[in-house]
Amino acid sequence: MCSRARFGLRLASVCISVEGCRFFAKGSSCCLPASSSPTRPAMIRYRVVALVLIVLLIYFFRLIFASGGDRSQFYQNCLKFCTLDNCTQSGVSYKKELQWKHDPINKLLLWTCYDECGYDCMWRTTAAFHNRNWTTPQFYGKWPFVRFLGMQEPASVLFSVANFATHYKMLQRFKREVRTDSPMYGTWRAFSYICLNAWIWSAFFHTRDFPVTELLDYTFAYSMVLASFHCMVMRMIHRSSIVVRGAFSCLCVLFFVNHFSYLSVGRFDYSYNMKANIVTGMSGALGWILWCFLQRKKRRYVWKCFTFIVLATSSLLLEINDFPPILWTFDAHSIWHLVTAPLTILFYSFIIEDCKTLRKELVGVEDEESRKLL
């Protein structure tokens, strides 16, 4: 947003100087003086350009205000006076005579007095923005959410738990219906445990946003993306030797350990994490789609995998087209969590059917080899 502000100031300087200049000399740092009597069409053209630039400048400043709730002077003043009036010097606890203000559930979830002031000032600032007909601001990169039982983002917590429950239920079905000696059995079971772990940390992070919960949520969310990519490659090479399969699995594990270690040290690198997710996720999606296309005639059930990949990838549009939370509860991210839960059922249905088919093929090959020996 700072770059937009700088660009806006440059536009303003152009608007101020445009009527006194005919053109900017290429490569020069100053404006050449215009003739003393510019033509009327030229003056009109300059004024139209100046008006357009001013409108753009206003738009850029609206964008700046729209995403800078925590940087606004209103919020900073509110937070300053609230902490002075209510909190101890450390900001952790309320003053002795104001202990009654600290809700037991919020206290249990480690909401400090400073945090409570931030929550209250967030809503005061949001109301002030709306009174000036400004768009809903974000605070520290997040929309304002109504808190419920101490949870910062209750809808995302609920839908993370729904995803966990769906994975758990489908894992139990997988273990009931698929024999342990089926090809890919161990790979898909490991995939399920990785997903269960990731959704646990997603629920924790959306309950309370701390640096440690953010790190665990982001890194284990990537573990799901990497696990899907791993399963895609393993499905393609499942007939290869155990050395090849083991080497690839070790490579994926080492890459994740390096990924986790890098993000754990120093400032969290959001840019790198996003690039890693996009490259790994798109590689996995394209790989699955290619495999489905090649197997479409031999294995009729691959439509389930194809449909899952297409819908899951399409649902990421919710992450791109973010919007202020509906009823201060349901934002694009929480709705994305809601969408992914039922899609999981479709994917597990494919996994189960594919493992059964692979085992039938394996048994058929073994029987044929036995008959040849006879």
Strand arrangement in the largest pleated sheet = 1-2
What average pLDDT do the residues reach? 83
> Largest sheet at a glance?
2 strands, antiparallel
Radius of gyration: 29 Å
Number of DSSP helices? 13
Residues in helix, %: over 70%
Question: What letter string, H or E per element, gives the SSE order?
Answer: HEEHHHHHHHHHHHH
Features:
374 residues; disordered N terminus; two-stranded antiparallel sheet; elongated
In short:
Mean pLDDT is 83; it is low at 1-38 and 52-66.
Please give a structural write-up.
With 374 residues, the chain is mainly alpha-helical. It is 70% helix and 2% strand. It has a two-stranded antiparallel sheet with strand order 1-2. Helix 6 runs antiparallel to helix 7 and helix 8 packs antiparallel against helix 9.
SSE blueprint and pairings:
Layout (H helix, E strand, L loop, with lengths): L1 H16 L3 E4 L6 E3 L6 H27 L6 H14 L17 H5 L4 H19 L22 H24 L7 H23 L3 H26 L5 H23 L5 H26 L6 H14 L1 H4 L11 H42 L1
Antiparallel strand pairs: 1-2
